[in-house]
Amino acid sequence: MIKKLILGLLALIFIGVVVLCVVVAMQPADFKITRSATFNAPPEKVFEQINDFHKWEAWSPWAKIDPNMKTTYSGPATGTGAGYAWAGNDEVGEGKMTITESRPSDTVKIDLEFIRPFAAKNVTDFSIKANGEKSDVTWTMTGTNNFMMKAFGLVMNMDKLVGGDFEKGLAQMKPIVEASAATK
């Protein structure tokens, strides 16, 4: 009798694991996270902040999480080929970014590679559009989730999690850009 109960319980666990794996596998692989803001500044002032990784320290939502984080820069100081790498605590992890496209006052595209706590390669795109005397800025990240990230997505809303960081970053960049525009 106990043997049948144990076998029945094991069968239920096995079925549950199979169902969970099927549900995870059916989740969309591709993702896109986008946030936008309007700045009271011309596009070139926004572009200056995004196109230079050295300036990210002032507004990046992740820059101050780990005061002991190690950062390195490579390639040109700004624009296509500029690189930034970081290694920090468990909250910020480790990774690197490289600007792959830089169109003045319009677009900055970045290859983003996370090394830890999980490996992932994504593309980040900043789009800047003139809106009269203002600029509309859109920060987008796209990528493909592996099986583990699909499973993680079942319990954690990545759009809210990462999107919240994008909102914070744009909010922190806004006064810097607007102050720069005021001094012309």
Strand content: 25-35%
Helix percent band: 25-40%
Radius of gyration: 21 Å
Main sheet: strand order: 1-7-6-5-4-3-2
Judged by helices, strands and strand pairing, the structural class is alpha+beta
CATH class: Alpha Beta
Domains (count): 1
The total count of strands amounts to 7
Average pLDDT, to the nearest integer? 88
Give the SSE order as H and E letters: HEHEEEEEEHH
Could you please describe the fold and organization of this structure?
By secondary structure, the protein is an alpha+beta fold. It has one domain: 2-Layer Sandwich (Alpha-D-Glucose-1,6-Bisphosphate, Chain A, domain 4). The chain is built from four helices and seven strands; from the N terminus they run αβαββββββαα. It has helices at residues 2-25, 43-50, 147-155, 158-183; strands at 30-39, 70-74, 83-87, 94-103, 107-116, 120-131, 134-144. Strands 1-7-6-5-4-3-2 form a seven-stranded antiparallel β-sheet.
